[in-house]
Each structure stands twice: as C-alpha cells, then as structure tokens.
Amino acid sequence: MHTSNLIAYVVPVFTLMILCEFIYGYLKKKNNYRLNDTVTSIGLGLMSRYPALLGLGVQGLVYAFISNQFNLGLLASYDPYVWVIAFILYDLSYYWLHRSHHQIKVLWASHVVHHHGEEYNLSTALRQTGTDFLFKWIFYTPMLLLGIPVEIFVTVAALNLIYQFWVHTEHIKRLGILDYIFVTPSNHRIHHAQNKEYIDANYGGVFILWDRMFGTFIDEREDLKPIYGTSKPLNSWNPLWANLEVWSEMIKDTWRTKRWRDKVALWFSTPKWRPADVSEKYPIKKNNLSQFEKFDTKTSLFAKIFGFTHLVFVSIYTQGVLFNSATIAYVDLMLISFNIVTLMVFASFMYENRTFVYYFELLRSLTVLALISVGYFNFMPEIILGYTLFSALASAVIVLRDRVLSPSEAR
Fold first, then answer.
1. Residue-range definition of the domain harbouring residue 332
2. Is 119 left (phi over 0), alpha (psi -120 to 50) or beta?
3. What is the mean pLDDT of residues 79-103?
4. pTM score above 0.90
5. Domain for residue 35, yes or no?
6. CB-based burial of residue 134 (10 Å sphere; 0-12 exposed, 13-18 middle, 19+ buried)?
7. Same domain, 275 and 398
8. Is residue 56 part of a domain?
9. Does 145 map to a domain?
10. Nearest to residue 307, comparing CAs of 339, 345, 274?
C-alpha cells in the first residue's frame, strides 16, 4: 500500500513549479537555486519512491493485518465526513510523527535527509528520506483501527504530502490569517532554520493549529532571517550518504561508548545527545552561524552537464516506473532501483569533482549493457539502452583522455 500512483501524476506539476520559481527568482535577481543542490534534492525525492515499490519494511503487512483483524468499523464508510475526519486525523498523526522525528535520535536518523539542504526552494520539498518505512507506520495505525478504508487512508496521505510541496519557498511572504491556521511558507521556513531562536518548531503538515495547541509554534521574525540546513553540516552531495550519515554516527557511537546503558540510550535520546566519553574523545564540529558559509563545490562544465543528464534520465525513467510498477518483474525492479541509486550517487561525485567517478561510470554502463544483453532491464528498454550507450561513450572519452594525457595535463 503506497501513494506512488497519485504522486506520479503530480511529479510533472512539481517540475513545472520548480522551473517557474527558478525563472521568477532569476528575473527578480533573487535566485536561490544551485545546480548541485537542486540535483541532489530532486535525486533524493526520486530515490525515496523505490523502497515502497520494492515492498521494503512491514508497514503494508501491519496495515493489512490491523485493517482485517482489529478493525473497529467506526469510520468504515466512504461518506464525505469520513474523508474530512481522515484528512484531519492524518495531519494530527503526522504532527506527532514529525515532532518525534526531531526529538528521538533513531527517528531523526531517517528524517535528517529533509533538513540537509542549505537552500530553501521548491526542490527542497523533494529531499525525502529513503528509510522512513522503518518506523512511520507506528503513528498511523490508530487510523486503521478506527476502520478508515485503506483507499481513503492512502489518498489523504498523498494529499498531505502534496500540500507540503508549495510551502518550501522564500518568495511568498506572510499570508495574513492563513498563517494562523495552515502551514504556510512563513511558518515552514522556521522549521528548516538552524538558528537557535527557531530550532525545533512548527511540525505541522497542513495545519499549524497543532503547533499552536501543543506549544511548538514559533513565528517568523522580520529581523532574523532563517539560516537553512543542519547544525552539523553534511558537506556532501551524495544522496546515499545523506540517508546513512546519522545511522553511521549512531552505530560508531554505540561501539565506542563503554557503558551498556549508554549504548542503548543514545538510540532513543534527543538527536544532540551523545555519551560523555564519546563526545569528549570524538567531538563533532558544528556550524558557527556568525561565519556560516554554504557548502559548495566547483567543477567543470562537462561534469555539470553530465551529472544533470543523469538526473533527467532518472526522472523520466522513474516516472514510467511509478505508473507501471505492477507490471515490472521484481528482479528487474531491484536492478532498476540499484541502477537509479548508483546514477544519482555518481552524479554527486561529478559535482564533488571526484575524477575517479568516470571509471566507475564506464563500469556501470558496461554492466548494464551486459545485463540488457542477457534479458534484464525489460522495462522501457529503448530508453535505458540509449542512455546507457550515451553514458558509456561520455565516460570513455574522459577515461581515455586521462590515460593519454600526462598527470600534469590531466584534470
């Protein structure tokens, strides 16, 4: 059970809105898009669709079990009032899930992906985690207990996610009375800020009322511009590392700390807490906001274009997969997923100016071509074959050039 089909329909709309925001910002001389940041954001969003398509986690099984075995039948109809109640209950459940994401480290490890972005634009909304299938189902099980039909649940979940897209912009200022009721750009900018005056606030998805009711609301100040990102910067464009970085830190801290109580406690502590013996021996450098500089990397025009073509292919191919996942063999779906992740990771290496990536990209392309030749990658074969041939040729040009040129002449 997932929201992929409805999301698939709005992806082109999201793309158009991102383009419009970029053009508007450029014309107004307020552009806040960078190619490396935007490719990473969109790539994370596309990658986040695949765990559900692969059926990872237990949420589908749990939802089906509750719906069949523990359904109280209190809201089992398809009447309009059930839709309204379901929409409100979903947003309330989302509020507590989102608040818990910021207060419990094991949940933060999954959610942090959405906060790494140091730009705040519509593409930032697409920075979605690939590991939320592990725990988020826990917060929505009460809705299934009440008997809300699965179709209604899936639809309101998608609508909630779609609503949250438009609030990720700096170009829309205050909206009067709407700021008191709904999550708006002004309210949500605060949520993405790392300023100590703004941190850990405004968790609502659609309604800001929950934050006002439960004491987690902070208003945007005219005299304090939000600084976006996480206090411990990722300093990487790698979407896979973005999903794994905090998990890696937690595992290492668990191994390093001596007290068994701390080994367990750090998984359920606040995100900032670390055992004393570990934090003293392995300190983590955090941002000094008075001297804050956004993470950026300089690379060649070729790398920028090549990395962007990866994103274009992944976007088009994933759109097709979302509409046709039920018809794709599971083995092919796994290979497609692995290929998509690899493409976006290699694009990030290009933006980080890691020249070894062209050797890896050539190897990836040749591997995909070999798998195609033996009968795999049967979905949209012309598109994947065409792009893989292009990628193999482009990578080979760089590899051959680097092998021919002397070290002093090579990039």
1. 301-404
2. beta
3. 97
4. yes
5. yes
6. middle
7. no
8. yes
9. yes
10. 345
| Structure-token pair, residue 304 | 């920028």
Query: Which residue from 141, 124, 120, 133 is spatially nearest to 195, judged by alpha carbons?
Result: 120
Cβ atoms of 315 and 42 within 8 Å: the answer is yes
Q: Look at residue 3 in the predicted model and tell me its pLDDT.
A: 52
185 φ/ψ sector (left φ>0, alpha ψ -120 to 50, else beta): alpha
Report residue 42 as tokens.
């969109």
In a domain, 164, yes or no: yes
Q: How many domains does the chain have?
A: 3
279-304 pLDDT, tens digit per residue, is 999 999 899 998 999 999 999 999 99
- As given in the structure block, the two tokens for residue 191 are 């949520």
Cα 216 to Cα 35: distance, rounded to the nearest angstrom: 34
